[in-house]
Amino acid sequence: MPNKYDRHISNLTKDTYALVLAGGRGSRLFELTDVRAKPAVYFGGKFRIIDFPLSNCINSGINRVGIATQYKSHSLIRHISRGWGSFKAKEFVEILPASQQTGDDWYMGTADAVYQNMEIIRSHNPKYILILSGDHVYRMDYGSLIAEHVANKADMTVCCLEVDTEEAAGSFGVMTVDPENKVVAFDEKPDQPNEMPGKPGQCLASMGNYLFDADFLFNQLLKDVVTEGSSRDFGHDIIPSIIKEHNVFAYSFKDPDSDNQPYWRDVGTLDSFWEANMELVTPDPQLDLYDTSWPIWTYQEQLPPAKFIFDNDERRGMAVDSTVSGGCIISGSTIRRSLLYSSVHAHSYSVIEESVLLHGSHVGERAKLKRVILDSKCNVPEGLVIGYDREQDIANGFRVTDKGITLVTKDMLDSYVQKNS
Q1: Do 206 and 326 have their domain in common?
Q2: Nearest alpha-carbon partner for 269 in 53, 31, 46, 69
Q3: Which stretch of DSSP H or E encloses residue 147?
């Protein structure tokens, strides 16, 4: 993003506390989230999904960040403690696990996750509170958002994407705004979204990111907790209850130079996860991970460089149109249009095409993978063919999506080996 974004690193961002909601299960990723929360899912060869909103905070000058965790949070907490712990005094990333702070319940909804940590947040005395979803992949300067929030004298600002009404129907919360972008109505996942003024076929869909004046948010949370029937959720309860009597604005997430929609992905299904990773191996991906002006920070092991060995007509270690991470050994294997995470070992005569291989996996000799998501620490047996025959993959115990992407996990392979031994 060189020379594209004015970073509003000022007292506005320094007076902001960001809370990342990272407790989601991500059930549409099926077995990929059996052992980890969705924000802890790997993405892009060496990152976790949560690294993107956290990096946006740091790059925007927001250095006080809380992370609310709940579902299977061990790997997420381990990642955060290893990679996000070295900050200056009064600057931090702190983990806020569900711990029944205010009663006998765990986090009941997005608003409740904030309410249960309200006294911890209040102790940092922020003027503004930024609530972020922890399970989307994007780059965003939150300073621009805060500056517009203050200029509008808003009580709450909702980050929005401009999307086709057909795409938003049944999938997104949709804002209806006046010509000044003041929210006049909000519908949670409507079948027929309201269109934007002057933009037929387009609507403003909520990104799940919200900015509040701190005192206003605290007051609304205290009202919500005594509201009978509330589901304790921002989309279902808080936003609809405040738009008529308070200043709630929509902030459209747009490129300030081109007015185009910047990169944003909800990798919440196996197909979207595979597609978003595959985009990264194209020659000119929209998400440029090599852009040093807006780095994505993460924890990574100290690993040796990727290694490619053997170069003869019978076996040749090679990778084309692919991304191969540190610690990988491509031993006489052919890799095409694939993304390999760290410490993957592909053995001789194997062929890997259009696949995403998570860290620590091994692909045996003469195995063939195509359009496969291979979970971490898998050992693909010698000669096994995956991704070429849908019915055979299903018979072998693997999960195949409607679009023909095959998910393979360690447990699935263990069951396959036991069944065929």
Answers
A1: no
A2: 31
A3: helix 142-151
Residue of 239, 266, 253, 109 whose CA lies nearest to 175? 239
> Given a cut of 80, is residue 190 above it in pLDDT?
yes
| CA-based R_g, the chain, Å | 23
Residue 167 in any domain: the answer is: yes
Q: What percent of the chain has pLDDT over 90?
A: 85
Number of structural domains the chain divides into = 2
Range of the domain at 232: 4-280
Q: Find the CATH number of the domain harbouring 343.
A: 2.160.10.10
- pTM, rounded to two decimals: 0.94
User: Is 108 buried (19+), middle (13-18) or exposed (0-12) by CB count in 10 A?
Assistant: middle
Quote the pLDDT of residue 233.
93
173 labelled binding-site residue: yes
Task: Give 309-352 pLDDT, tens digit per residue.
Answer: 999 988 999 999 999 999 999 999 999 999 999 999 999 999 99
Using CB atoms within 10 Å of the CB of residue 225, give its burial: 0 to 12 exposed, 13 to 18 middle, 19+ buried: middle
Answer yes or no: is 91 a known binding residue: no
**What distance in Å separates the CA atoms of residue 161 and residue 176, rounded to the nearest whole number?**
13
Q: Which residues contact 214 (CB under 8 A, 6 or more apart)?
A: 17, 121, 122, 126, 127, 128, 129
Residues whose CB is less than 8 angstroms from the CB of residue 4 and which lie 6 or more positions away in sequence, other chains included = 255, 256, 257
Q: What is the pLDDT of residue 88?
A: 60
Percentage with pLDDT > 70 across the chain: 95
DSSP 327-352: T-EEES-EEES-EE-TT-EE-TT-EE
pLDDT in tens, 16-62: 999 999 988 889 999 999 999 999 999 999 999 999 999 999 999 99
Q: Are strands 137-138 and 264-265 parallel, antiparallel or unpaired?
A: antiparallel
For residue 290, is it within any domain? no
Q: Is 138 annotated as a binding residue?
A: no
